[in-house]
Amino acid sequence: MEWLLNVVMRGILGAIAIYFINLGLAALGIASCVGINPVTVLTTGILGFPGLLALYGMGFYKML
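Predicted structure:
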């Protein structure tokens, strides 16, 4: 039960982090490359901060 609560909390915090990172990137003139959807929330929920970095890494790689 504790593991499930940790995954849910990391997913919620990951979605909030994606939102604010996208706002910051938009202010710099960079199109947001990561959207908030069930897959990204699940990725950040399971992997945490490394999952967030992986999502943005793949997004920037895709922009190249």
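Summary: The two ends are 41 Å apart (CA to CA).
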